[in-house]
Amino acid sequence: MTPTGLSTGVSTTAKRTVLVSGASIAGPALAYWLHRSGCAVTVVEKAGALRDGGYPIDVRGTAVEVVRRMGILPQLQDAHIDSRRCTFLDPDGSEVASLSPRAVAGGVEGQDLEVRRGDLAAILYALVRDDVEFLFGDSIDTLDQSGQGVDVTFHSGQQRTFDLVVGADGMHSRTRETLFGPEEQFHRYLGYCFAIFTMPNSFGLSHEVMVWNTPGKAAALYAVGDSDELHAFLTFHQPQPPFDALRDPDAQRDLVASVFAGAGWEVPAMVNTMRDADDLFFDTAGQIRMPHWSSGRVALVGDAAYAPSFLTGQGSSLALVGAYMLANGIATNRDHSSAFAAYERDTREFVAMNQALVDNGAATLFPTTARALEQRNTMLRDLVTLPSATARPAHSALRLPEFAPLR
Ligand SMILES: Cc1cc2nc3c(=O)[nH]c(=O)nc-3n(C[C@H](O)[C@H](O)[C@H](O)COP(=O)(O)OP(=O)(O)OC[C@H]3O[C@@H](n4cnc5c(N)ncnc54)[C@H](O)[C@@H]3O)c2cc1C
Predict the structure, then answer these.
(1) Residue 394: inside a domain, yes or no?
(2) Where in the numbering of this chain does the FAD-binding domain appear (predicted)?
């Protein structure tokens, strides 16, 4: 399917076969571009179906150009959430500042997009599902590169050989672990944990985000449109990652409840809802930083290779841009080593600039001391009176090459 009406660029030589692990954002986006370049693509996803849910995500700068070239910009514009207000609150719930979400996040009105994560995943999946093989409810058990390709044994027991394999399996990538070893070596912990879940919109919130802070703690309620459901978000500073809690949902609930005990505003109601939430998602805020994104015939893309953390708001944009750049590397190089080298060479600086957003400002949304919180509040009050924000340079720092597969 080529919605922009361009040639698929299908090669006259035998089709290269590529297995992609993970069907969220990076996986289906990569599958689209690889299919466009004439590869036969299989996507394997551990979950039994496409995964819905998650906080709204942003598509900004260079990533907007990627989705335009994919022909899905109009659909994403229709799905655009259009949050109108972001209100910051004191510990007692009184208002500190109320401003445009774009002023806070550095997005550009009329260009950048904010969509439900599930909507973006569904639009990408719909774009490729007729052209790409999807294996839901399965995963890669072993990878063996000793032969001419990559011999893959799936969890289901199926065995197949592919020319290339790509891990698009997220921050805690199994593909990365198989290839490069434990996550700890590549994980840069940013000092925060967070819990996300949904709760009833009994507050009458509409098209807006409310953010409550005390030093080291924040609670947010996110109303997407006029939905009767809110996205609730609790985040807190924790100097060391709570490794035990990461594997134990009950310990996660206990940890969050103890951290937020005695907090003001609507936090007690949020904590109560979290106790029984069946969609609780708990994790640490962290980045993945790797010296190389490939080994032999296997490469990584998106969060698996360079998760930037929610503090940057750039996870999905990096996944979309990374998918385009990796596919372009494969499409323009017959040899996989050259393909992966080109992908790294042309994408790494963009990734680094976006990951660096946590070092120069993004984390100040959640200050850990009273003094830093007061400084942040002053900055927010100043933002209210400033003209609307301009884009952060990192969002648009990469000029996409033309997608020109070899013939
Ligand atoms: C359900 C869900 C909710 C999310 N909610 C938020 C949110 O609220 N805020 C936020 O900033 N980011 C969220 N994210 C992460 C966000 O989507 C990514 O940061 C970003 O879009 C980059 O996407 P990605 O495709 O690289 O990785 P991800 O979106 O993490 O996708 C990885 C995919 O790989 C699959 N997978 C994992 N392991 C295996 C395996 N062994 N074999 C096969 N498949 C595997 C996962 O099920 C998932 O579909 C969420 C992701 C998911 C899957």
Answers:
(1) no
(2) 17-351
Does the residue 397 lie in any domain? no
Select from 264, 286, 308 the last residue of a domain: 286
Let me know whether 313 and 176 are in one domain: yes
Give 334 or 362, the one with higher predicted confidence: 334
| Cα 168 to ligand 1 centroid, rounded to whole Å | 9
- Domain contains 317: yes
Q: How many residues does the chain have?
A: 407
**Ligand 1 site, residue 235, Cβ cutoff 6 A:** no
Look at residue 214 and tell me if it is in a domain: yes
- CA 316 to ligand 1: nearest atom: 21
At which of 235, 254, 286 does a domain end?
286
Strand partners, 283: 194
What is the count of structural domains for the chain? 2
Residues 142 and 56 grouped into a single domain: yes
7: pLDDT strictly greater than 50: no
Atom of ligand 1 at shortest distance to CA of 308? Answer: 19
Could you identify the atom of ligand 1 that is nearest to the CA of residue 231?
Answer: 8
Residue from 154, 169, 221 to probe ligand 1 pocket by mutation (most atoms less than 8 Å from CB): 169
Q: Is the CB of 139 under 6 A from ligand 1?
A: yes
H or E stretch including 287? strand 281-288
Contact 19, 152 (CB under 8 A): yes
Alpha helices in 260-310 (DSSP H): 267-276, 303-306
Please give the Cα distance from 217 to 214 (Å, whole number).
5
- Pair (236, 180) in one structural domain: no
Dist. CA 169 → ligand 1 center (Å): 7
If you take atom 28 of ligand 1, which residue's CA is the nearest one? 170
Q: How far is the C-alpha of 217 from the C-alpha of 287, rounded, in Å? A: 20
The domain that contains 354 carries what CATH number?
3.50.50.60
Domain limits for position 254: 187-286
The answer to whether the predicted template modeling score (pTM) of the entire model surpasses 0.70 is yes
Residue whose structure tokens are 């996989």: 336
Cβ neighbours, 10 Å, residue 396: 19
CA of residue 351 to ligand 1 center, whole Å: 18
23 CA closest ligand 1 atom index: 49
**25 plus 117 within the same structural domain:** yes
Summarize pLDDT for 180-217 with one digit per residue, the tens: 999 999 999 999 999 999 999 999 999 999 999 999 99
